[in-house]
């Protein structure tokens, strides 16, 4: 049998193996030890990480994971597995041949090393790395690139390698987001103020050159245009703060509380375009915690619009990205 023309390493953040304090501690230790995620000097960060974060946070966060855990495990992993299988199917249709797709997570399992081994064992000589982060950030996308480079240290013969850097303005991405919002409005029968809530990063990272907020703004502007929304009909915010320093603003939770108290807007539809798959940050923080923030403060209606997950238009986008970035292979 001839070897495949290329393979795809579908990458995402990763998630704990179980909704227990022990598994969450293991996951957070790996995640929060990455200098791309927390860039503080180690002498300063180690005592905080080991003395405070890893002794207090895992128990609380494990409870949050338990509230969203499914029969197939963590939503992020279950959805990523479905995306992997569906992309392989789409690529078979598109290229008329078998294109292996392996799933690799930056932290936890399945690892990027295991995905690389899977592709090697399938006879793949060229690899396209496709991080499922629409907007580039050094804390996410660049970290995946680091992991791939680290994995290759164990490898005597490198494959041909290409990376997808970001796709914040790809027409099929914007279209898939717009479709998901329009379907939601049709199902609800009414339209609330649209909130595009992105995972934040420390403001300092952006000041040091991380282009993430610019890419989020690009996505938001193009999505608002695709939906023909006037400026007063939508707002962009940042969620999921961690630690004491200032993160990108405006903050999602504070904005919703302010609106709830003011009674305007009375109804919001909230989505998170930075997440290609629903996860803790959308299903618990956005769909539950922030709903409570808004309604408790006086808001009237709050609806969460799911991530693109394994929607067909999302898989069409991923297929198009693969076709675009593998020309000549
Ligand atoms: C500590 C700094 C963090 C930075 C910077 C950060 C950036 C960032 N993260 C995502 C996507 C996800 N983050 C998720 C969870 C999560 N994020 C942080 C911290 C930072 N993220 C923590 C500590 C956690 C774990 C939960 C917690 O302890 O609160 C997830 C969900 C994972 C899951 O298992 O479901 C995703 C996805 C992006 C896109 C981003 C920067 C652009
Ligand atoms: Fe995060
Ligand atoms: Fe969170």
UniProtKB/TrEMBL annotation:
CDD domains according to UniProt: Ferrochelatase_C, Ferrochelatase_N
InterPro entries reported in the protein's UniProt record: Ferrochelatase, Ferrochelatase_AS, Ferrochelatase_C, Ferrochelatase_N
A biological process from GO: heme biosynthetic process
Positions bound to Fe(2+): 199, 281
Main location class: cytoplasm
Root EC class: lyase
EC number(s) stated in the UniProt entry for this protein: 4.98.1.1
Catalytic activity: heme b + 2 H(+) = protoporphyrin IX + Fe(2+); Fe-coproporphyrin III + 2 H(+) = coproporphyrin III + Fe(2+)
Pathway(s) served: Porphyrin-containing compound metabolism; protoheme biosynthesis; protoheme from protoporphyrin-IX: step 1/1
Pfam family membership, one: Ferrochelatase
Keyword entries, A-Z: Cytoplasm, Heme biosynthesis, Iron, Lyase, Metal-binding, Porphyrin biosynthesis
GO cellular component: cytoplasm
GO molecular function: ferrochelatase activity; metal ion binding
Subcellular location: Cytoplasm
Family, as annotated: Belongs to the ferrochelatase family.
Protein function: Catalyzes the ferrous insertion into protoporphyrin IX.
PANTHER family: FERROCHELATASE (PTHR11108), FERROCHELATASE, MITOCHONDRIAL (PTHR11108:SF1)
Stated name of the protein: Ferrochelatase
Source taxonomy: Bacteria, Pseudomonadati, Pseudomonadota, Gammaproteobacteria, Oceanospirillales
């Amino acid at each position: 049998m001839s070897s495949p023309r290329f393979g795809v390493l579908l990458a995402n953040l990763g998630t704990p193996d179980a909704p227990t304090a022990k598994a969450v501690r293991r996951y957070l230790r790996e995640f929060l030890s990455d200098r791309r995620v927390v860039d503080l000097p180690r002498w300063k960060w180690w005592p905080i990480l080991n003395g405070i974060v890893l002794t207090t946070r895992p128990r609380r966060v494990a409870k949050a994971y338990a509230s969203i855990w499914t029969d197939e495990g963590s939503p992020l992993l279950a959805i990523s597995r479905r995306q992997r299988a569906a992309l392989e199917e789409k690529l078979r249709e598109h290229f008329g041949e078998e294109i292996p797709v392996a799933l690799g997570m930056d932290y936890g399992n399945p690892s990027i090393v295991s995905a690389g081994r899977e592709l090697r064992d399938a006879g793949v000589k060229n690899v396209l790395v496709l991080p499922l982060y629409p907007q580039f950030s050094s804390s996410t996308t660049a970290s995946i690139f680091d992991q791939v480079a680290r994995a290759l240290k164990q490898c005597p013969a490198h494959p041909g390698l290409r990376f997808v850097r970001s796709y914040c303005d790809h027409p099929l991405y914007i279209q898939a987001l717009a479709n998901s919002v329009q379907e939601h409005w049709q199902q609800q029968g009414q339209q609330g103020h649209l909130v595009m809530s992105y995972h934040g990063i420390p403001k300092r990272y952006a000041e040091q050159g991380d282009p993430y907020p610019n890419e989020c703004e690009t996505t938001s502007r193009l999505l608002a245009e695709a939906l023909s929304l006037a400026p007063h009909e939508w707002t962009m915010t940042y969620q999921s703060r961690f630690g004491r320093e200032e993160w990108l603003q405006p903050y999602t939770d504070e904005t919703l509380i302010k609106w709830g108290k003011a009674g305007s807007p009375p109804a919001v539809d909230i989505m998170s375009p930075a997440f290609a798959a629903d996860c803790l940050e959308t299903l618990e923080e956005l769909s539950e915690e922030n709903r409570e923030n808004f309604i408790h403060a006086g808001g009237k209606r709050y609806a969460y619009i799911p991530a693109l997950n394994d929607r067909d238009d999302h898989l069409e986008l991923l297929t198009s990205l693969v076709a675009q970035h593998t020309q000549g292979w």
